[in-house]
Amino acid sequence: MALLQAVNVGKTYTAGQVVKPVLQGVDLEVREGEIVALLGRSGGGKSTLLRILAGLIPPDEGEVRFKGQRVEGPMEGMAMVFQSFALFPWLTVLENVALGLEARGLPKAERERRAREAIALVGLEGFENALPKELSGGMRQRVGFARALVVEPEILFMDEPFSALDPLTAEGLREDLLDLWQAGRTSTRGILLVTHNMEEAVALADRALVLQGSPARVGREIPIPLPHPRDPGDARFRSLVEAIYETLTQREEVERRLEEEALRLPQASVEALLGLAEAIARLGGRADLPLLAEEEGLEVDDLFPLLEALELLGFARVEHGDVELTAAGLALGQADLQRQKALFAEHLLRHVPLMARLHRVLLERGRLPEKRVLEWLEARMPPTEARHVLGVLREWGRFAGLLAYEERGRFFHLPEPEETP
Amino acid sequence: MRPLDPLARPNRYDLLAGAVALALLGGFLLASREALGPYTPTPISLDPRHLPEYALRTAFRMGVALLLSTLFTLVYAPLAAKTRLEPFLIAVLDILQSVPILGFLAASVAALSGLFPGKALGFELAAIFAVFTSQAWNMAFSFYQSLKTLPRELEEAARLYRLTPPQRFLRLELPYALPGLVWNAMMSMSGGWFFVVASEAISVGKTEVDLPGVGSYLARALAQGNMEALAYALLAMLLTILLYDQLLFRPLVAWSERFKYEERPGEATARSWVLDLLRRSRATRRLGEWLAEALLERALRFRPPRALGLPPWLGPALLTALGLLGLEAAARLLLSLGPGEWLRAIALGFFTFLRVMGILLLATAVWVPVGILLGLRPRVAVRVQALLQFLAAFPANLLYPFAAYLLLRYRLSMEVFSAFLMALGTQWYILFNVTAGATALPADLLEAARAYRLSGARLWRRLLLPGVFPYLVTGLVTASGGTWNASIVAEVVQWGPHRLEATGLGAYITRATEAGDEGRLLLGIVVMSLMVVTLNRLLWRRLYRWAEERFRF
Q1: Are the beta carbons of A133 and B159 separated by less than 8 Å?
Q2: This prediction's pTM
Q3: pLDDT tens by residue, B461-498
Q4: CB–CB contact A102 B300 (8 Å)
Q5: Looking at the DSSP assignment, which residues form a beta bridge with residue A35?
Q6: Contacts of B166 (CB under 8 A, 6+ apart)
Q7: What's the CA gap between A55 and A73, in Å, rounded?
Q8: CATH number, domain at B54?
Q9: Which domain-ending residue is among B259, B291, B313?
Q10: Does the beta carbon of A82 lie under 8 angstroms from any beta carbon of chain B?
């Protein structure tokens, strides 16, 4: 029997009249003795799914079972490590760790004994009476681990636990976690790790699940049968990372995203877009995604929206974990700023119907209140997304010289002649 | 410190809440009519040897009121934040905040003394109640806002680790809310002193009430035109406030720093010698730890009892019945007055409105430059802020007799200068906030301005004034409420046998109080409340939003 099991889980967010399904038909299992990594892009529903599994959010459809029991709220035997640590700043390390024991009504002496043991386990002896603000990020996350382990959880949920730490600290903490896990010094029988870092997934997990689509479901399962300790330089390690990248850049997935993005516009700043085009052009117009991410110091979450934006505008094509610039893309990457603006404007009008439409209205009427655009968008997508799209439209349009924006009156108008490049 | 957003309130339920508040008030006034029992006043001695005792009694009233406000906050805010009564309770709070509380003073004296006929206890309670009304709403709002803005990850951690409700309250909610709560309690003390002074010596209809205290000492000195005694009263008040500040609030503020969720760079940490002393003393530390632990252990063992078997409609039904009774009483009082009286009250309200807005503009013109200059010198600002907080706590109504003397002496127009009296205590809010705003100006912007040689008028127009604008609005909102309230005591002042009156709604309310005319009193309060609420909605709320969106860094 699986330790944790999700069957046909679905979740929909409703804002006003717009209904946005986030998750649909999600099935997954965490079996005894394994670490499962849950991957996906930002805003792809990973965090929502994790919170549903932990009982923090109720699902709209389907059900979650923990040790065969239906999950209807956080249960005994569950613990979580948070991305932002979620330590209570006014409590000492000891008090923070003992929090879950207090809730169980254990006597004080017992609580202290077990909390001290957990603190020792993560290597924080001597810091029992420190306040979290006196600790470094890595030490704070160790407190987070101690707080989770002290309640002797059978399943441990981890919500991007290393992403707020610098790479070296993260590395050290990952290794310590693995040591604890492999030595069997904890009661934990299964770990579910949410991450957007593919190397991290390959380094830790026995299986990686990739969330895909919108609404998201578990698109692919990638077993990671490597023995520990794993070497990131190892060829098999690399090829697994490559495989995850490929899953996320499968052609049908990319095209489906693009269709969506034609209206939803990826969250990409012009600066970063041009920077990326220039970088790929320097690499000869073609690049391997894992290498590119590493070289440019970009996390996957930052990289994908940029790639999608480039592809949407007809500057690049992404496939099988690789990106290739089109002729126009190569020109963009090599041009000077004025020429870049002109190219960008041309492609914006050709490939982004929303921008073309906005520009046409401005040509006819001269000006358009921002509110009208927002209303139009809000009738088609959730309000937060509408605001994002509006922001992207404004930035891209202004950069391309296709429109100008009046901050005080909040309306769009055509740029003055001398403003156009 | 996170500024409280005083204007982001729901408005759907305002009408309902307004009706209920009106109803309660009407019932209250009606009850007070029968409640006037016999009372033998203790003569107040002007001998300064009695002053320490009087000051102590005044301070005691303040302390009891503060305790009551805290208890009220701890009950009301969680109810508002966690039950389905939320919109209703919040709307009630919003209305109560807008109502000029000084207008109720007479009514509350009458009603509470009626509970204990012939004893001073009723009057004591009335004075305490007056102070309570000047603090409780602010504090409850602050706590409510904290409860509604708990950091999401801490809230999730609390749920995941299955904290019990009492544990959650002690470990998460109360600590998170503490800094804001302490700050609000301290800031509303200035209003409290104002009220305690005003409520110790008050005449309701034919009854003269003199509770032993600094306020009644002052009133007596005033009636006799005794300048020396007046000076003593001021001194006693200053000392009392200083002691309160040093012994209670400084330690509390310094202690509550530990509970700040986010530390902002550049914010000076509060210090208190009293707290340092307490921390160094092993006995008090042990006592503190023991108390905290005992409380926690008790809370941990606490298991909530089953819900009482009361039908869910009982509470609302009782409230409705009470409300209808009160509404009927209020309607009877108001309808007997006729439309002419209404128009008169509104016209008078317009005069008071002109005074409030005029003096706020003037105060802005004066204090904004001062505040900016101060704020740009952080080291001076820290010291001056402490002094200013202390000064602001000083009840301005203690100074009114001197003002009356001056007005009489130089034959100045009360119509104009009553406005100055109204803003005497509230102008500081503008200075406070502007100074805080100037201190918070990003250092790199100031450096950039220096690098580009921005100076003089251009520097002010481009950076300094827009930079402090949101803070100015926050200050103005607070000052406006206080100024309206003060108009009730500032439009009529007395010096010995001389009485000066300005044409305005404040004077109207004061006169109705003195005459024991419940109808006109209620009318005056209703009109003033309506004006305050309208002004909040039409002017302050919009200005606040605009400032937040456009000028925040």
Answers
A1: no
A2: 0.78
A3: 888 888 888 889 888 888 888 888 888 888 888 777 78
A4: yes
A5: A191
A6: B299, B300, B302
A7: 4
A8: 1.10.3720.10
A9: B259
A10: yes
